[in-house]
């Protein structure tokens, strides 16, 4: 072998070793990144043969020739468990959970809500015979004291929602008016809250008449009776509006403020505490935890 051929062969060998090292490094990196995808998945696939399997004559079969053909290994997918929607799960509530129920109630919730919120936080447990016995005792106790139980499963969450919002009541800036209950009901309908009638709305004892430009953005409290039992405190603001854009007043913020200027002394109830919600900024981006992305 000549010196030139030996030099070329050694160059090719070095290049091949370098490529092999790169391929090995990429393979290890890809395996480390795909650890979860390579893990075993507990799914069930139900298959059926696409072609009917022929019977084999065991007495006259050929000793070498293959008895099962390639067409006998063609299958069709009938059902896959991970593509089927998971059914909800039944739990026994240990504490009062707004929008779901009170302590001792049996509720049916999605599996992701149960496994990521209710069960880890100790607000619910799986249904057991012992839990059913406690549930029956809880029902008997509530029957003896009806004043301690809420009117419905969603009444507490409705009270919390109304207490955390700021209601803008649109009023005319030029024509004289007097604030009435139907004004509050119309303003609630604008934000998607439906009131059955005006009797559930309690206005301040002092009459509110206008228009006055200094009333724009001033706050006052009203009370909403829910199912004739719970009482929600709703913070409202006068929003003076007109048809001419040239005469329009500054647009009010719909987020409940920490400090409010009352319309008159005592217009804002002491029970209207500041909201516990955080003001959402334009730069805020929703962050979804990894365990909340996929449903169980």
TrEMBL record:
Protein name: Large ribosomal subunit protein bL9m
Transmembrane residue ranges: none
Domain of life according to the entry: Eukaryota
Molecular-function GO terms, alphabetical: structural constituent of ribosome
Family statement drawn from the similarity comment of this UniProt entry: Belongs to the bacterial ribosomal protein bL9 family.
Gene3D superfamilies: Ribosomal protein L9, N-terminal domain
Record Pfam families: Ribosomal_L9_N (PF01281)
Any one cellular-component term (Gene Ontology): ribosome
Cross-referenced SUPFAM superfamilies: L9 N-domain-like
Residue intervals of the Ribosomal protein L9 domain: 89-133
GO terms classed as biological process: translation
Classification via InterPro entries: Ribosomal_bL9, Ribosomal_bL9/RNase_H1_N, Ribosomal_bL9_N, Ribosomal_bL9_N_sf
UniProt KW keywords: Ribonucleoprotein, Ribosomal protein
């Amino acid at each position: 072998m000549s010196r030139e051929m030996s030099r070329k062969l050694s160059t090719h060998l070095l290049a091949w070793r370098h490529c092999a090292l790169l391929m090995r490094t990429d393979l290890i990196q890809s395996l480390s990144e795909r650890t979860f995808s390579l893990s075993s998945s507990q799914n069930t696939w139900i298959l059926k043969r696409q072609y009917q399997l022929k019977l084999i004559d065991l007495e006259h079969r050929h000793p070498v020739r293959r008895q099962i053909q390639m067409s006998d290994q063609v299958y069709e997918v009938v059902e896959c468990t991970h593509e089927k929607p998971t059914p909800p799960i039944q739990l026994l509530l240990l504490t009062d959970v707004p929008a779901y129920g009170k302590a001792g109630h049996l509720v049916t919730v999605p599996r992701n809500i149960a496994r990521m919120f209710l069960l880890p936080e100790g607000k619910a447990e799986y249904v057991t015979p012992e839990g059913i016995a406690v549930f029956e005792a809880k029902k008997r106790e509530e029957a003896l004291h009806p004043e301690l139980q809420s009117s419905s499963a969603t009444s507490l969450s409705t009270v919390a929602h109304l207490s955390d919002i700021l209601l803008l009541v649109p009023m005319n800036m030029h024509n004289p008016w007097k604030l009435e209950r139907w004004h509050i009901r119309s303003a609630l309908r604008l934000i998607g809250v439906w009131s059955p009638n005006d009797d559930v709305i309690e206005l301040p004892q002092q009459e509110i008449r206008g228009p006055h430009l200094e009333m724009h953005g001033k706050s006052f409290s009203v009370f909403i009776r829910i199912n004739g039992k719970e009482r929600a405190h709703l913070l409202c603001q006068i929003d003076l509006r007109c048809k001419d854009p040239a005469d329009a007043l500054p647009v009010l913020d719909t987020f409940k403020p920490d400090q409010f200027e009352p319309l008159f002394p005592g217009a804002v109830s002491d029970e209207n505490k500041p909201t516990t919600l955080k003001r959402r900024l334009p730069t805020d981006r929703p962050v979804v935890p990894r365990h909340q992305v996929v449903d169980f």
